[in-house]
Amino acid sequence: MLAKTDFEIFSLIQKEEQRQQNTLTLIASENYASKAVMAATGSCLTNKYAEGYPTKRYYAGCEIVDKIESIAIERCKKLFGVAHANVQPHAGSQANMAAYHAVLKPGDTILGMNLASGGHLTHGHPVNFSGTWYHAVQYGVNKDTEQFDFHEIAQLADQHRPKLIIVGASAYSRTIDFTQFKKIADSVGALLLADIAHIAGLVATNHHPTPVGYADIITSTTHKTLRGPRGGIIMSNAAHAESIDKTIIPGMQGGPLLHSIAAKAVGFSEALTPAFTEYQKQVILNAQAMAQAFNQKGYRIVADGTDNHLFIIDLRSKNITGKAAQLMLERAGIVVNKNCIPFDPEKPWIASGIRIGTPAITTRGMKENEAVLITELVDMIISAKGADHATNIVSEKINTLCTDYPIPD
User: Fold this and answer.
1) Pick the catalytic residue: 57, 163, 224, 264?
2) I need a labelling partner for 321 at 20 to 30 A (CA). Which of 100, 121, 252, 257 fits?
3) Catalytic pick from 230, 318, 338, 355?
4) Cis peptide before 126, with omega less than 30 degrees from 0?
C-alpha cells in the first residue's frame, strides 16, 4: 500500500532496511527490534486517543487499550521488580524530564554526571533543559582510573546539598555501584534517580546490579539493550507513584502513543524469556572480547576494560580523531559513533575516541570469534587511515559477515 500511495517514502524505507542489513552496527544505543515489536508499533493502535490512564481516560472507546496498557505496566513491574511503572513517556529524555519535574521545582539543585565523562545531556548539561531549569552541579570520573570517584561525589554533594542525585551514563563501561550513590544521597537528604537507559537489559536479567531498593526513581529507554521499541519508562517506589503519573498527564504529555505502549508490552514479554537472559550474557562476552582484542593491538581502552555492553577507545596513539575514524569506518560498512574520552583535549564534535557497543551484532547471532574478527577489520581501516585498498578489503568481509548473520526476522 505504501509503495502505491507514497513511493518516495517507501523507497527510502527500503533503502534504510538495506543499509541496516548490509552494515555492522556498533553504536551502543542501537539494536534491532523483533518482528513482533515492529508489528505492534505499526498497528491500528496509532489511531486511538487515550489521554489519562487505564479506567481513567478523557475519551470513550478505551476499553481495549486500557487492557493493553495495563498489561505493559504489569510486565514492566515483573521484569524489573518494581512497585510502580509508568509506560507512557515517549522517550528517555522525556522520562527524565518528567521524573525531575515530579520531585523538583525550577532552580533546585541537582547533581549528575557530566557529558564529557560519559554522562547524558539530561543529567545537567548547560544546553539542556536539565541545566537551564535547575541548578546543575556535575561530577566526573577519577583521572587515573576513569571510574567514579565516590570521595569527590560525596564532597560535591556535601558542598551543594542537591535535592536530587542522578546516576547513570551513556558512555561508562564499568559496573555502577548504586549502594554507594544511595549512601551519598542519604547523607545529604537527597533523592536518588537511576537512569538505566543503557544497561536496562543487563539489569533486567541480573547481569548488572539493580538500582531497585536504592533509587527512589528509575528511568530508562525501552530500546538499546532492552531491545524493544523506541520509547521511555519511569519506575518508582510507591511514595512517588502519584506525583510521577500526574507529571506525565496532565503535566507534560497528552495522548500516549498506544502503538508504542503495545510494542513495549511485547518487548517486556520477550525480555522475560530465558533466551533473552542468554542474549545479555553474550552481549557482555562480545564486548569484553573486543575490548581485549583492541588492547592487544595497542589501543587504550578507557577505564581499562568493560563490564557491560560498551567501551570507549582512545585513538590518540593512532594519530586519528574520533570524527575521522567514524567517517572512515562508515565507508567500509562499520557504523560507530565518535565519543569523547574523559578529560578530552578535543571538542565534542571532533572527539578523541569512538564508542563501541555489542547489542546489535549480538542480536544478529555473532559471538566472540566474530567480535574479534570485527576488531581486526576496524584496526585495518584505522591503521590504513581509511585508504581505498583497505576499505575495499574490509567492505567485502563486512558483506560476508552481514550475509552470514542477517538481522533476525
Assistant:
1) 224
2) 121
3) 230
4) no
Clarify whether 51 is annotated catalytic: yes
Give me 354's grid cell.
569512538
216-273 residue pLDDT tens: 999 999 999 999 999 999 999 999 999 999 999 999 999 999 999 999 999 999 999 9
The per-residue pLDDT for range 176-198, each reduced to its tens digit, is: 999 999 999 999 999 999 999 99
Q: How far is the C-alpha of 221 from the C-alpha of 201, rounded, in Å? A: 10
Q: Please name the residues in contact with 209: beta carbons below 8 A apart, sequence gap of 6 or more.
A: 175, 176, 177, 178, 203
Looking up cell 534491532, which residue turns up?
A: 32
Annotated active-site residue 195? The verdict is yes
Question: How much is the pLDDT for 28?
Answer: 98
What phi and psi, each to the nearest 5 degrees, are found at residue 325?
Answer: -65, -40
pLDDT given at position 146 = 98
**In the annotation, is 49 catalytic?**
yes
Q: Give the pairing of strands 56-57 and 52-53.
A: antiparallel
Do the bridges between strand 353-357 and strand 310-314 make them parallel or antiparallel, or are there none, so unpaired?
Answer: antiparallel
67 is catalytic: no
Confidence category of residue 409, pLDDT binned at 50, 70, 90: confident
